Amino acid sequence: MNAHVVFDKVVKRYDDIDILRHFSFSVDKGEKVVLIGASGSGKSTVLRILMTLEKIQGGEVYIDDERLWHEGTDGSLRPASEAHLRKMRTKVGMVFQQFNLFPHMTAMRNVVEAPVRVLKMPRDEAEARARELLERVGLAERMHAYPAQLSGGQQQRVAIARALAMRPEVMLFDEPTSALDPEMVGEVLSVIRELAEEGDLTMLIATHEMRFARDVSDRICFLNLGQVLEEGPPEQVLGNPREERTQLFLRSLLEEDKQA
Amino acid sequence: MLFGIHWDASGTAIHFALSILPILLIGLKVTVEATILGFILALLLGLILAMLRSVRFKVVSWPAWFLIEFLRDTPLLVQLFFLFYVLPLYGITLPALLIGILGLGGQYSAYCAEVYRGGIEAIGTGQWEAARALDLDRFTTYKDIILPQAIPRIVPSLGTYLVSMIKDAPLLSAISVLDMVAASTIIGDQTYNYLVPLSMVGILFLLTTLVVSFLVHKLDHKLPKTGIPMK
Lengths: 260, 231
Prior knowledge:
The complex is a heterodimer of chains A (260) and B (231). In chain A, a hairpin with a 2-residue loop joins strand 11 and strand 12. Chain A has 9 helices and 12 strands. In chain A, 38% of the residues lie in helices and 26% in strands. The termini of chain A are far apart. Chain A is α/β, with parallel strands linked by helices and 260 residues long. Chain B has 231 residues and is an all-alpha fold. Chain B has one domain (13-222): MetI-like (MetI-like fold), CATH 1.10.3720.10. Chain B has helices at 13-54, 58-73, 76-86, 96-121, 125-133, 138-168, 180-191, 195-222. Chain B is elongated and about 75 Å long. The chains are: A alpha/beta (260), B mainly alpha (231). At the A-B interface, strand 8 and helix 3 of A face helix 5 and helix 6 of B.
């Protein structure tokens, strides 16, 4: 097995509400997995746990066979040390629903900041790489613009370049187009699609864009009540879902589309 | 005579006023110096206090909270007297002006700490999460991400405290600092004319605070609300 990311019976609770209930799931190196499910099904939480933005209350998470969380003295799970956490974190990059660009920095500076500060890359080298990345997401001309001067779609593309600048092995996309106006969804999805076609990167994508999910993914996981209810190749899960819950969910999405 | 300058109380009020103006301006310089240095101290110490207070460990955050409350909720005059009369008993003798600067800066650092805290808390969690996802350490996150966005929002409040500090500076005359107010009362004592020197002091304070308020306002308009730009 060359599993890149493994969740083993992970439990996540907010207050007294169970978000993940013994959630188990694994992703191979280079695999593109799309997570679908209603809001509250736990798909964002899976990504946020991998990015170490959330702690877990039980189970185990592995990246590259290394455990992300360790048992604390009081029985709670916590990272072994800040150094360990940071080492694990450098393997993972994340793109947020709300972009979360730094509003006081130009697109260029947004991309350059972490490589310079964290990887200690010389500034001119970081800028050269940033220029390449911004070109790749189609924003070479806008690199000196501030986020407020960019459209939502452009901001999200900068955010993708910013995450890529840290050379992650695993890229997480948390509903990357949900906050966008419909006419900007396409430009962001095509950037992600290109990334997926290039190959090496392991990708986990939470999305409601089913056609995109079908195109881009090796596997689709349908999450329901904090567990993987159904998973498989996109044709099977989207075209011929076994579970009734999956069928209901897909039908509800179709109806939304018709209304829109 | 004060600071080697003579006054002339024999003529008209205007004449008297002009003759003491150079003396009062020397005193004003002391007030301004104490305020500027005190304010710089307040800005730096306030930032440190605000950060200590936000630390997760209670061993650190609780003493910081206590210090902030103590500095805020006891009168500045008492703090100044304490530093001026008590410290020498333990062998620490500092110049009065320095004590004044420490006193002003100390109390206002507590006000500034609260202003910083408000400004920092106003920054959305998305910014913290993005910084964490990029693996920026806590120091860099504050320096490059949070503070540049927080500062433009807190400039108006800090400006209000700066003006308020200028108006508190005359308390330093109570610990023998020879500032504008002390000079004016000396002149009054010797000429039996308090009206003119104290009126002059009022006018000079008014002009000073108006200028400072104007500058703060200018600065506030100059800073983009999204944060101090970084290229």
